[in-house]
Amino acid sequence: MDLGFVSRAISRTIKRRFANIERLACIILQVRFLLLPRKPARQPPISAKMPSHKSFMIKKKLAKKMRQNRPIPHWIRLRTDNTIRYNAKRRHWRRTKLGF
């Protein structure tokens, strides 16, 4: 009996099975990619969200910060001979948060 023929036949069947397994693994990965839910967009932490119902104290603080956040009046420039040119404590709503 020729053992080389047997070993070649076995290697052929192994190659076919591995090819089928590789194809099957590829299909499984594709199906998993299609069926798994995608990650939702990153949301800010819960503590950073502003509640819809504000307490009166928070509302007062927000109102004060809103009043402070404005350019200096023109007469201040005239009174100080242009040494104070702008409001150094001006705050942008997106860049600098109040922290309460």
From TrEMBL:
<dbReference type="InterPro" id="IPR023626">
    <property type="entry name" value="Ribosomal_eL39_dom_sf"/>
</dbReference>
<dbReference type="Pfam" id="PF00832">
    <property type="entry name" value="Ribosomal_L39"/>
</dbReference>
<comment type="similarity">
    <text>Belongs to the eukaryotic ribosomal protein eL39 family.</text>
</comment>
<keyword id="KW-0689">Ribosomal protein</keyword>
<protein>
    <recommendedName>
        <fullName>60S ribosomal protein L39</fullName>
    </recommendedName>
</protein>
<keyword id="KW-0687">Ribonucleoprotein</keyword>
<dbReference type="InterPro" id="IPR020083">
    <property type="entry name" value="Ribosomal_eL39_CS"/>
</dbReference>
<dbReference type="GO" id="GO:0022625">
    <property type="term" value="C:cytosolic large ribosomal subunit"/>
</dbReference>
<dbReference type="InterPro" id="IPR000077">
    <property type="entry name" value="Ribosomal_eL39"/>
</dbReference>
<dbReference type="GO" id="GO:0006412">
    <property type="term" value="P:translation"/>
</dbReference>
<dbReference type="GO" id="GO:0003735">
    <property type="term" value="F:structural constituent of ribosome"/>
</dbReference>
